[in-house]
Every structure is written in structure tokens, then in C-alpha cells.
């Protein structure tokens, strides 16, 4: 009887070793308690216990292989080739094919999903994956992974959704995929109103706001058709037959032929003198906002004013702006916040930074020649809107785990903390610590563990500035 009880416990433990990972992660094979060779998907902390409250023992490099011997609450106990032993969260590991001593993953049902027999609700349409995504037996991340839908591949959908999951038909059986990784956009019926050219790589969004989910990337210098619809910061376009939205700030109108009939002739030019300025459809103070322009932008004027509003011609249409926030003449002067990128410095998104962020960039270039990589604007950010709005600079630290590089990073971070008012700094992050310039007496405070070395700012100093 005792032997039968041990056998029953062993079977129960094996049944619990189901496939584990987030909806967009790489499939980890079942039998997670068996010895398994795995590799890190990014820079990631190795901790002394299965939780973020445990101390960091070391860091795994991207693609570094380790041996996993047990799991607990989504954490793997691993041993690296250099003898480092500790715990790593499952999201930052992937199984090396064929490495598990327990064999391949189970094809049975997950904790909440259907098994291999499944149900057969008919398809009611199709959806396309915007990135490689797991197909699961149920609408939870604990449900069994039964396959992977590759980026760009289409799959039938039933029309049923549950808590952020979409029901699909996979190999004749109803399965589930995270809705965030699918698009079901229908073919656009909007007439073409014009064209714009992108000046940077932009996210294609499903709506006209930063909170709308992205649905792919549009390369810089792309020419796309517009529908004429805009919000304060976004322009609706037609991309691959589907209506999507892109940031207006990083587009230029493509003009051809004569000026649109009914638009008055241009008589002069003004320059925007504030950080941002609304372009409105009418001269009313509460007129519909159709776009936002930024400091230094040149606007064509008709010479017509109504009260405190100035009439302009913007993207081929008559629009209005607040006159007090402009100055006569085109912006031909060099902005004191302009940047000069020295040879050998790797950069991205510097020209799209605001004036305060450009001043940060210029100070780093002039003061710290050891820095060879600096990043600024980018289309999206997981943690704040500072990068998409040109208010953040990432100062990358080469060989960041060496003590001399750590010291350099702290010298830069503390330099901007001490001069926060001069550079209009709002906050600084370095080595998982954050400094809030509005509360200097608090000093440097520990930040939550975001997982990887880059997300924890171990390899760079992040400086966010005011608008």
C-alpha cells in the first residue's frame, strides 16, 4: 500500500508538470520538474530564491544555456556552466529543443481548456497574428500550449472572446489565442483624401491615440494614403487595405498638382514658439483639434486673423492656430537645443527629442566621451510615454557589469541629479534605482524588478525631462 501511495503521488506530480509561459512567449516543454536544458531570452537576473524579493546572485546573458532542475510558482531553479546556481522567472527562459529528460510536452487538456477532442464551433471569420503566439487549449496562460501561430499567419476564429482571449479553430478543434496578438481588421471602404510621407519608423495603431494597441510598424519614408480623419496627435491612413492610425508629428504631406480649390493663397510664414500648439478646424477657441504642431515648426499663413486666432493652410486645408504662440517668419535660425552627433557615436531618435532632452544629449556628448551609444525617441515604450513624446534619453553603458563602467554610469546619473533644475529633469533611473527630481530629499530609491538587465536599467542611464 505504501508503494502504491508513492506511485500515485509521482503520477500526480507528473500531471502537474504542464507547459508554462505567457501568451506571446516561446513554448516550454512539459515535464518542467525534469532536468532540462534552457537558454535565456534576454539579460535576466538570477536570484537566490523563487521571487523578486530574493537577492540577485548574477545575470544571464541572452542565449546563455543553463540546466533547469525544478520549478516553483513560475520560477526555474537553474545551474549555469560557470557554476552559478539560482532562480530565474519562466518568461525569460526558453527550452532547447529535445533537451527535456521527460520527453515532449503533453497534448492533454490544460487546467481550464478542452483536451484533444475539443469542441467544433464553426468559424465566423479569420484573424492574423501580429507576432508569433502560442495556441492554447483554454483562455488562460496556464492552459496547455497545443501549437504556435507564426507572425503573419491567419487562423479561423469563432467570434467568441473571453477575458482578453479569442477562440480560434486549430486543426479542427476550438482553441484560444491572446487577443493582443491578433488583428481582424476589415478591408477599408474609406475614400482616399491625400497622402503623407513618414519621417520616422512609426507604430500602426488601431485608433487615434497612444493608448490604442499597435498593429505593426510602418517604415520611415513610407508614402501612405490618408482618409482625411485626424485627432489631436494622429492621422488615419489606409495600410494594406485596412484603416490604421499613425503619429501626425512624424509625417509630411505629399503634394501634387494645384492647391485644393477654395483654399486662399499663402501670403507668409510663421514659426511655432511653444512646446506644442493645437491646429483647429475653426477659429473658435473650442474648435475641433485636427492636429498638433511643435516648437520650431513653420506654418504657412494667409494673413487672415479672427480675434486671437491666425488662419493657416495646413495639409492643403484652411486651419487656425493661437496667434500669440507664433512668431513671424520661417524658422531659419539654429535652435540652441539642436544636436551635433560626433563621428563614431551610435544614436537613434535624437532629432525627435524636445529641447530639454536635446540639452541632456549635448551635455553627455560634451562631457562623457566614453559614451558611444545614446538613444532618444522611439515609437513605443512599455513603462511611460516619455520616449514616444521625445522626453527621454537612454545613455548606454558599455561593459556595464564591470566596476569602472558602473562608476561611469553613476557619475552621469548623479551629474543630472545635481543639475536637475538646469536640464529640467523629471526623473532618472539607473541600476534599478530611481531619483525623482521633484523630491530630492528622498534620494535614490529601489525600483520594482522588471526582469531583464535592460528593463532594470543595469546597462544604461535613463533621463526623463519635462515637456
TrEMBL record:
In terms of Gene3D superfamilies, this protein maps to: SH3 Domains
UniProt keywords (A-Z) are:
Signal
Gly residues compositional bias, start-end: 105-116
Positions of region (Disordered): 103-123
InterPro entries for this protein: ARB_07466-like_C, Cell_Wall_Dynamics_Protein, SH3-like_bac-type
Enumerate the spans annotated as SH3b domain.
33-97, 122-186
Pfam families assigned: SH3_3 (PF08239), VldE (PF26571)
Q: What is this protein called?
A: SH3 domain-containing protein
Supply the PANTHER family for this chain. FAMILY PROTEIN, PUTATIVE-RELATED (PTHR34408), GLYCOSYL HYDROLASE FAMILY 19 DOMAIN-CONTAINING PROTEIN HI_1415 (PTHR34408:SF1)
Signal peptide (UniProt feature, chain positions): 1-29
Name the source's superkingdom.
Answer: Bacteria
Q: Which organism is it from?
A: Propioniciclava coleopterorum
Amino acid at each position: 500500500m505504501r508503494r502504491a501511495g508513492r506511485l500515485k503521488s509521482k503520477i500526480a506530480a507528473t500531471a502537474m508538470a504542464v507547459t508554462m509561459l505567457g501568451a506571446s512567449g516561446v513554448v516550454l516543454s512539459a515535464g518542467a520538474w525534469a532536468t532540462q536544458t534552457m537558454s535565456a531570452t534576454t539579460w535576466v537576473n538570477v536570484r537566490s530564491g523563487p521571487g523578486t524579493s530574493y537577492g540577485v546572485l548574477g545575470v544571464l546573458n541572452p542565449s546563455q544555456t543553463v540546466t533547469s532542475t525544478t520549478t516553483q510558482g513560475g520560477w526555474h531553479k537553474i545551474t549555469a556552466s560557470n557554476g552559478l546556481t539560482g532562480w530565474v522567472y519562466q518568461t525569460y527562459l526558453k527550452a532547447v529543443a529535445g533537451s527535456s529528460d521527460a520527453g515532449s510536452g503533453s497534448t492533454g487538456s490544460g487546467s481550464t481548456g478542452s483536451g484533444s477532442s475539443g469542441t467544433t464551433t464553426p468559424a465566423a471569420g479569420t484573424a492574423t497574428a501580429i507576432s508569433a503566439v502560442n495556441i492554447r487549449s483554454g483562455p488562460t496562460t496556464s492552459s496547455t500550449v497545443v501549437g504556435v501561430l507564426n507572425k503573419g499567419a491567419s487562423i479561423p476564429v469563432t467570434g467568441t472572446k473571453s477575458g482578453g482571449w479569442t477562440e480560434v479553430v486549430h486543426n479542427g478543434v476550438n482553441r484560444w489565442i491572446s487577443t493582443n496578438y491578433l488583428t481582424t481588421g476589415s478591408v477599408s471602404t474609406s475614400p482616399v483624401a491625400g497622402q503623407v510621407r513618414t519621417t520616422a519608423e512609426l507604430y500602426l495603431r488601431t485608433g487615434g491615440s497612444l493608448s490604442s494597441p499597435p498593429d505593426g510598424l510602418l517604415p520611415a519614408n513610407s508614402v501612405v494614403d490618408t482618409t482625411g480623419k485626424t485627432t489631436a496627435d494622429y492621422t488615419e491612413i489606409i495600410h494594406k487595405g485596412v484603416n490604421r492610425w499613425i503619429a501626425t508629428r512624424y509625417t509630411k504631406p505629399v503634394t501634387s498638382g494645384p492647391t485644393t480649390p477654395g483654399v486662399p493663397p499663402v501670403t507668409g510664414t510663421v514659426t511655432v514658439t511653444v512646446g506644442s500648439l493645437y491646429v483647429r478646424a475653426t477659429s473658435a477657441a473650442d474648435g475641433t483639434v485636427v492636429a498638433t504642431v511643435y516648437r520650431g515648426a513653420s506654418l504657412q499663413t494667409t494673413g487672415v486673423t479672427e480675434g486671437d486666432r491666425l488662419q493657416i493652410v495646413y495639409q492643403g486645408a484652411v486651419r487656425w492656430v493661437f496667434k500669440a504662440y507664433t512668431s513671424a517668419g520661417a524658422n531659419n535660425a539654429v535652435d540652441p537645443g539642436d544636436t551635433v552627433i560626433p563621428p563614431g557615436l551610435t544614436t537613434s531618435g535624437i532629432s525627435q527629442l524636445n529641447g530639454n532632452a536635446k540639452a541632456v544629449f549635448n551635455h553627455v556628448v560634451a562631457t562623457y566621451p566614453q559614451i558611444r551609444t545614446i538613444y532618444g525617441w522611439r515609437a513605443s515604450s512599455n513603462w511611460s510615454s516619455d520616449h514616444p513624446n521625445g522626453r527621454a534619453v537612454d545613455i548606454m553603458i558599455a561593459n556595464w557589469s564591470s566596476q569602472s563602467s558602473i562608476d561611469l554610469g553613476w557619475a552621469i546619473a548623479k551629474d543630472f541629479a545635481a543639475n536637475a533644475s538646469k536640464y529640467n529633469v523629471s526623473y532618472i533611473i539607473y541600476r534599478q534605482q530611481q531619483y525623482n527630481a521633484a523630491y530630492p530629499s528622498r534620494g535614490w530609491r529601489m525600483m520594482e524588478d522588471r526582469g531583464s538587465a535592460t528593463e532594470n536599467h543595469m546597462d544604461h542611464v535613463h533621463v526623463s525631462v519635462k515637456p
